[in-house]
Specification:
By secondary structure, the chain is an alpha/beta fold. The chain has twelve helices and 16 strands. It binds NADP nicotinamide-adenine-dinucleotide phosphate (NAP) and zinc ion.
Length: 387
């Protein structure tokens, strides 16, 4: 009994070691709207004979490439194990690439180790493999494997990008002084760290007041820079100036979410912004009872960014009205709060200006703490929205 437990513990450790490698492979690229997937095959001696990742929609899935590469090295794969970060796909209507489960069965592989289950309900890979007598070990490093596909999972469920709200606040929850000064709430080291995390996102979104008040560059300048995130400005009446600093970085797209009516009413302004390579995303204005005014309906605009422009994730960087809108509408998946050891006081520019719940705390937004990081007198709290 003791020996059995020990053996199974060793096997789990071994599978986790290979899964870690597969996860690293999956991180090579972001094939959104498809999921990131990494796959490897090891032989009876534990030697990795092939590895692959899914590059982009329309191209072969990681499992297909890994099997093809393995066959070039070894004829008989029956004693090999395939490790994949995501449940392998089955045939379904509208699918344009080969099914991975069929390919696995044809290859003769008898053991498949899987990281996480595909959130797309029509994928029933695990069931299918088991029905064909394949030994399936599932949910190895489940959390890490699920994290790989978080943009894909959000897109399947809500047809929008993954959304993280990011804000630097004082202990009393203020984003700026009542005069609108926010430079700088957090310490230099925390700001550098926060800037390095921009690399985790496809795009950064700000409200027009933040753009006009702060004129930010919205680029990544610290950490491992692979590509500059796209920029999204929320601007109903097209006040974005063409000499704003965001236009100085050319290696990215700039989207302006604006009122549909501007197509007719502000054609000259649109032409001017488009000449500066800005891309317009049109949406309706909707009534907002808290401000007793009209604001842009951001949900459909974000859906367009995901479906038509492949924007997989958005870091929302303020200001106060923008954060209030996203919080109020429960339109986010993560919240990064950078709390500085400062008390600002006053009543304006709070993290959330509007009441989310009034009478009972049972109605408030409840978040799950994922991470804490301390730098100087500042603390980063990373929360996950449980929706
Ligand atoms: N500490 C931090 O992390 C941080 C980060 C960013 C900014 N800030 C500070 O925050 C201040 C600016 O905040 P703010 O609240 O005045 O402005 P904001 O959130 O940057 O922009 C709000 C504006 O966006 C437009 N908008 C259009 N649709 C909207 C919608 N659905 N929801 C919300 N806004 C919408 C509206 O202007 P139109 O009607 O003209 O479209 C609205 O007035 C600045 O002082 C800045 O320094 C602090
Ligand atoms: Zn597949």
């Amino acid at each position: 009994m003791v020996v059995d437990q020990e053996t199974s513990k060793n096997v789990v450790t071994l599978y986790s070691k290979y899964m870690k490698k597969a996860i690293k492979l999956a991180r090579t690229t972001n094939p959104f709207p498809n999921p990131r997937v990494g796959c490897l095959i090891f032989d009876e001696n534990g030697k990795i004979i092939s590895q692959a990742y899914h590059e982009m929609k329309g191209r072969d899935h990681a499992e297909i490439i890994a099997i093809r590469k393995a066959k070039e090295i070894k004829q008989d794969l029956s004693k090999c194990t395939l490790v994949t970060t995501l449940e392998p796909c089955t045939e379904f209507e509208g699918k344009c690439t080969k099914s991975c489960t069929a390919e696995i069965i044809n290859s003769g592989i008898k053991t498949v180790v899987i990281g996480c289950i595909d959130p797309l309900e029509k994928i029933r890979g695990i069931e299918y493999l088991k029905s064909k007598n394949i030994n399936v070990v599932q949910e190895v490093m489940k959390h890490e494997a699920s994290d790989l596909i978080k943009e894909y999972a959000v897109f399947i469920k809500y047809k929008r990008p993954f959304i993280a709200l990011k804000c630097g606040i004082s202990i009393d929850g203020k984003l700026a002084t009542d005069n609108g000064v926010s430079k700088w709430i957090n310490s230099q080291s925390m700001r550098e760290y926060s800037n390095s995390l921009r690399g985790l996102f496809d795009s950064i979104l700000v409200g027009i007041n933040t753009l006009l008040n702060d004129d930010p560059l919205l680029t990544q300048r610290y950490g491992n820079i692979i590509k500059q995130p796209d920029c999204i400005v929320v601007d109903s009446s097209l006040k974005t100036p063409c000499n704003a600093k965001i236009f100085s970085e050319k290696r990215r797209r700039i989207f302006i979410i604006t009122d549909k009516n501007n197509k007719v009413q502000k054609l000259d302004r649109i032409n001017e912004l488009e000449e500066n390579n800005a891309i317009m995303i049109y949406t309706d204005k909707i009534y907002d009872k808290h401000t007793n005014g009209y604001v842009l309906d951001l949900k459909p605009a974000l859906q367009i960014l995901a479906s038509d422009f492949n924007v997989s994730s958005v870091a929302v960087e303020g200001g106060s009205q923008i954060h209030s809108y996203f919080l109020q509408n429960n339109l986010f998946d993560e919240l990064y709060v950078y709390i500085a050891g400062k008390i600002i006081g006053g009543t304006k520019y709070r993290l959330c200006n509007y009441p989310i719940c009034l009478d009972a705390l049972t109605n408030c937004l409840k978040l799950k703490l994922k991470r804490i990081k301390k730098i100087d007198d500042d603390v980063l709290l990373l929360y996950q929205n449980v929706h």
